[in-house]
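FAQ: What does the model actually see?

It sees only this:
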Amino acid sequence: MFELRGNLTSVQKLTLGIAGVVIILALWWLLAEAFSRKVPVVEGFNTELPSTLTADSLENAQLRDSILRADSVKFANATEFRKIYPIVPLPTEVVASYPRLVQKDNLLGNALRSIWLNFKGYFWAVLLCVPIGFVVGLFPLFRGLFSKPVDALRYLPLTALIGVFIIWFGIYDEMKVAFLAFGIIVFLLPTVIARIDEVEDVYLQTVFTLGASKWQTIKSVYFPAVMSRLIDDIRVLTAVSWTYIIVAEYINKDGGGLGALIYIKRRLQQVPDMFAIILVIVLIGFLQDQIFAYLNRRLFPYRYYKSSLTGGMEVRLGIYLLLGIFAFAIFFSGIQAMSTIALIGALAGLVFIIFGEIKVQTALQKQK
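And it is asked to produce this:
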């Protein structure tokens, strides 16, 4: 287990995975206890001071002083105390907050809203980055004109630009999607150009020998090679995309979403609820990463398997159908029957994927 890049057995992986979770929970518990406070069990004890978000005034200062003096007197005279966790809540408090978040704060609805905005941002970013990146990366004229400005995009202070996006798009969903898409484009567009440069010459020489045209070279060599690696880069951007969507949802809490929900909980100083929402975002990000990994294995199987798998065509057809339905829902969201069309198309895509996946798994078992 201490060899450099050594391998673990399945039992070791399971055991160490469980042990890692236990260690993290233990450290979490210790941090909560370290930052805990004792407050007296007396009527009228107030641990919350007037908000510091508003402009300070003599009245607020006097009110804070009076609260602190009253609390200190009650604290000195108290005979019974209870422990609170104002900075790091206990894991049990975080778990206990989920029923309240689901019932009173519509946690599921806010999560779905943030996921939808996140996917829309990814859609527009990829839709713009791929053709622009191919044009700049493949043709010397456009590379000479735009390669330096594209590289300079990496240094833009994105959070400082949110004011500009508010002026351009307002404070509603259009601004949030545009800001998220731009945040992804800043990192993804230079990556597309870099991936084009990484295509191995042996493949280009092979298609040149076979007499392929420029378009055939792009379609059969550049596009599959770049896109198969680009999905890995998109997976890395998952954390970045969720950071930007949470920041954007802070702007207009009335629009809903997990970012708006965190903002409200912060103002109310409900720390366990904030931790619970953050864990939901972590879970969504993990699942999103696994979806991208699955798409990479099925859309570009030659990276993982030496021969074509039975059922791969059905899986790819189902994936393309789901992606088409997703694009259709974005472009034609105003159509009244859109939800019905999307549901039928999504179900058809899932049927193709499940049917193809059964055949793929059967083929993999035979290879073993």
